[in-house]
Specification:
Chain lengths: 266, 331
């Protein structure tokens, strides 16, 4: 069973909101001091889904990431979780790509890897939050696609996915090869193990360029973008923030109830 | 040279009635169509979709499309993708609106890919650029820490819209419109839905409840959801949660409020042991009153609330339950 997991390195989405900074002129986020780059949490959960399959049967997992210098850390992190191999896709031509451009690069890389049964992606990148790359990769490769997985099981050349729906879940069956996007309902991703960290340090992670994957340069980079970013700002959702006091928690709670009744909220 | 004209709304239906989110899309679509001087069209999907056609017209549609051929009674990604793509190729709209729903999230990128379209998801605002007449899309990014404004460069311009951000119109039954059948033939599916499992309790849906009490990562054990539930019951409301308790299995994921969960806009939202991360707040910003209970006075939630108390929920919530019960019975 060969599994490919697509991962993206992003600014930690759990950063304190007060630290978040935007350069409105340049229309980009300014990485705040001391905030680490991490593997997007949904992608970590996609890795977890792959590892659970590997826990149950013979499987080989390859991580793919499109990025620059720091991408290596993201790959090392998932290798430490138990992923077997990693590939970095890096080329100046990729810079400024939108979801369609990114999906094109990933698709070409997956085709280059060639022998695979399942492609896993996070449901959305926790920075741009679009939630579309996985499905577009599936379209590019002509793969069946199931989104929002909370459970992924493979057997007999098929994949069985529990897909999140508003009131519960639906069970979707698909032949392999297929692409599945993973949602947080799958549960906690495992932490890197000590052994995993040591093994990861020894692994060679190749870097593939646009030419290595046979990418069509007309489909990547800023020029190929199907939309244009015209503004990026920090919104203000602040409210009055009135703190209701009390000598004890019980008193404060009782005063709060009265205050809410006063306001017509209760 | 393809000509793109009209605004097309994907109308989801349930039991032959338009979903509330789809009514919101028609309201928004009508505004955009009016600005462009173009028609508003709707493609209705779901079992008995044709029953919702008069309502779609009353909500502003000039023309309603019903597909003949494929089985659109229940969502199947492959069937719906081919059907929506087919209708878009027939209608050639300049704008396509879908809800940021379980269906819209899945469908939009696949349809956009097949049509060579531009796509923005989870839009909270849409308008027409007066000069270029292109669609301007406003959407939260970085979990809601920032807001991006984007203009399309490719057609059609597809946008999925966050629930409860657009206004559903007052239906005008005097409006007239066409109902057109699109022949699509049978559509093969690679994937199949083999079972559906409901996990929510019966009763008021969290999105419709006037009061919601949410439990967050600050709760110390799954049993704490008992007091959350009790407070919700006293207030006649529903129980919600942030991502952490759902991921830990303390409460059903269908209770998750946030950017990747439910979007709620109750009269009163009580956030218990919730820090106020933007991804969660995205789900409750439409609440009339937001109230926070948290032990950390620096917690971000306090800035985003109307009222709050700095207190341990294990002492505060039982006291709130008692006091609210008292106030309710006193009338």
């Amino acid at each position: 069973m060969n599994i490919i997991v697509c991962i993206k390195q992003i600014l930690d989405p759990e950063m304190p909101p007060a630290k978040f900074r935007v350069d409105a002129e340049a229309r980009r986020v300014v990485p705040p001091e001391g905030i680490p780059l991490v593997v997007s949490p949904f992608d970590e959960q996609a890795v977890e889904a792959a590892l659970r399959i590997k826990d149950a049967q013979e499987a080989s997992i390859t991580a793919l990431t499109m990025g620059g210098e720091t991408a290596r850390d993201a790959v090392k992190h998932v290798l430490s979780m138990g992923v077997d191999d990693g590939v970095i896709l890096s080329d100046p031509a990729f810079e400024g790509s939108d979801a369609f451009g990114t999906a094109h690069v990933l698709s070409r890389a997956i085709e280059k890897i060639g022998d695979y049964d399942l492609v896993l992606c996070g449901r959305q990148a926790a920075d741009w939050d679009a939630g579309v790359v996985g499905s577009i990769v599936a379209e590019n490769l002509g793969l069946p696609v199931v989104t929002l997985a909370r459970k992924v099981e493979v057997s007999g050349g098929r994949v069985r996915v529990e897909r999140v729906i508003p009131d519960g879940y639906e069970v979707v069956d698909s032949p392999l090869p297929a692409l599945v996007t993973v949602s947080s309902e799958i549960g906690q991703a495992r932490l890197p193990s000590g052994k995993g960290i040591i093994m990861a340090a020894r692994k060679q992670v190749p870097v593939w360029t646009a030419d290595d994957v046979g990418c069509d340069k007309a489909l990547v980079g800023s020029a190929a973008c199907r939309s244009e970013l015209v503004a990026l700002v920090i919104p203000s959702h602040e409210r009055r923030g009135e703190l209701v006091e009390g000598e004890t928690a019980v008193e404060a709670a009782e005063s709060l109830a009265l205050r809410l009744r006063q306001e017509g909220a209760l | 040279m393809t000509e793109y004209r009209s605004v097309l709304v994907l109308g989801e239906t349930e039991h032959g009635r338009l979903a509330s989110g789809s009514r919101e899309l028609l309201g928004l679509g009508r505004t955009l169509a009016n600005e462009l001087g173009e028609e508003l069209k709707a493609f209705l999907v779901g079992a008995e979709a044709e029953s919702a056609a008069p309502d779609a017209i009353a909500c502003g549609a000039d023309e309603v499309y019903i597909a003949h051929g494929p089985d659109l009674a229940r969502y199947n990604s492959d069937v719906y993708t081919a059907a929506v793509t087919g209708v878009c190729q027939e209608v050639s709209p300049s704008i396509v609106l879908m809800g940021q729903t379980s269906i819209g999230r899945d469908l939009a990128p696949r349809v956009a890919s097949r049509l060579g379209a531009s796509l923005s998801t989870d839009c909270v605002e849409l308008r027409i650029d007066p000069g270029s007449k292109r669609l301007v899309q406003v959407r939260p990014v970085y979990g809601g820490n920032a807001v991006a404004t984007v203009v399309s460069k490719a057609y059609p311009q597809i946008a999925t819209v966050r629930p409860r951000t657009a206004q559903a119109p007052e239906p005008d039954t005097s409006r007239t419109g066409k109902v057109t059948t699109v022949e699509l033939g049978e559509i093969e599916a690679m994937v199949n839905v083999v079972d559906v499992v409901r996990e929510t309790a019966e009763g008021v849906k969290i999105e419709d409840a006037a009061v919601v009490v949410g439990g967050g990562a600050g709760l110390r054990g799954p049993e704490d959801f008992d007091m959350i539930g009790e407070l919700a019951a006293v207030l006649g409301g529903a129980v919600g949660a942030t991502r952490q308790p759902c991921e830990d299995g303390w409460v059903s994921s269908s209770s998750q409020i946030g950017q990747t969960g439910k979007i709620i806009a109750p009269d009163l939202y009580l956030a218990i042991a919730i820090s106020g991360a933007p991804q969660h707040m995205a789900g409750c910003l439409g609440s009339k009153f937001i109230v926070a209970v948290n032990t950390d006075p620096e917690a971000h939630i306090f800035k985003m609330s109307d009222f709050g108390i700095v207190a341990d929920y294990r002492e505060a919530v039982p006291a709130l339950i008692r006091k609210c019960r008292e106030l309710k019975s006193a009338g």
